[in-house]
Amino acid sequence: MMNFVKQIPIYLWSLISLISGLIIGAGFGDHLSIISSGTHSALTGFIKIVPIVIFIALCPAISKLKSQGGGGKLAASVIGWFLLSSICAGLLGVVFSSLLFDIKMSSENGMIDEAYKMFATLNGDSRASWPIFAIFFAVFTGLIATKITPLQKLLNMFDYWISNSTPVLSRIMPVIVFFLGITLGVNTGATDSMKYYLMMTLYTFCLCGIWLIIYLFVVIKLFAKQSIKKVMREYFFPTAVFAAGTCSSLATLPVNLTNVKKYGADPSVAGFVIPIGAVINLDSSALAYVAYAPFIMTIVFDASITWTAMLVAWPAIVIFTIAAPGLPAGMGTALWSSTLFASLLGLDETQTTVFITTWIALSGGLPDMFRTATNCTCDGFTAIFFSKKFSNSLGKDF
Predict the structure, then answer these.
(1) What pTM was estimated for this model as a whole?
(2) Alpha-carbon torsion (187, 192, 194, 198), positive or negative
(3) What is the C-alpha to C-alpha distance for residues 232 and 209, in angstroms, rounded to an integer?
(4) CB–CB of 250/237 below 8 Å?
């Protein structure tokens, strides 16, 4: 019996912990509020030091890539890929939602007025985050480290810490996910309208599923020429479960790095792609937050939305998902996106408050789990693809 238990993969233990936590949290909501608050505070505290984690993970990778001569080309390719991916995801959100919901061509005021409202909303609300600064500082440090021996030794130490974090993470991961499950269960149980929430959950699952299928068949099968079953079994499930539990791309960063390297991705490439992706690649979030507006307006408020508003908001939301940090529960992106759409739709103060509150309530919990799991694993798929693409130039076999 003990041998059977030991043979159960860590990600299955994490999944069991997550489901158990969700059930317990939903069933004993008020009684477990202190656990929910404590878990939220702990995760919030971790998020504050994530820029340091990004710096520690990214510096050695940049240094290695520079010494191998592939850093500049890889950096340009990865950033360009993530930008293109987010743009396509946002456009897919516009197209997919237009097939399901009532979207009019334009409001009475026209596109110019709606565009003006968008830029008014953007003013002062979209700003760079510490994770962005951490990336720039890490790139600079990694580039100069090859010429400074003491600094290079420090970066080698960072690389050692990241590589040897696997045993510790494996032991504590199910426990962490259990408490995160309780937190999500408490929050989900408090939702006023379970009908709308379940519909939003299913809607988000479909959106993320479509994006995941595109990534698997285009990036993994066509470009990287990898077995989809192998990738799903050895990389996707272990990473997706943890990412869903944390609801944060940044909090998942160490686990994502470990799992994609374990699958076989080049450590130098993965060490660059994953930290970059954790900050600037929230493509499934770009897809979802564009597609949520027609859902909420049509299903919840029984009102229409215009193509003008969708097309004007699309690039703005893409830009914000690239610049926004991967905070748990998507609060930053959810709040900003709902505020943007409320402005574009010309809602009054009372309507705006109800609209934003509804948006945040419906998009948190389970929908955020799906978005985060998709964001994180698409980063890993990208690392696998670029490992294949740059294996020859970096002198590595994939």
Answers:
(1) 0.75
(2) negative
(3) 13
(4) no
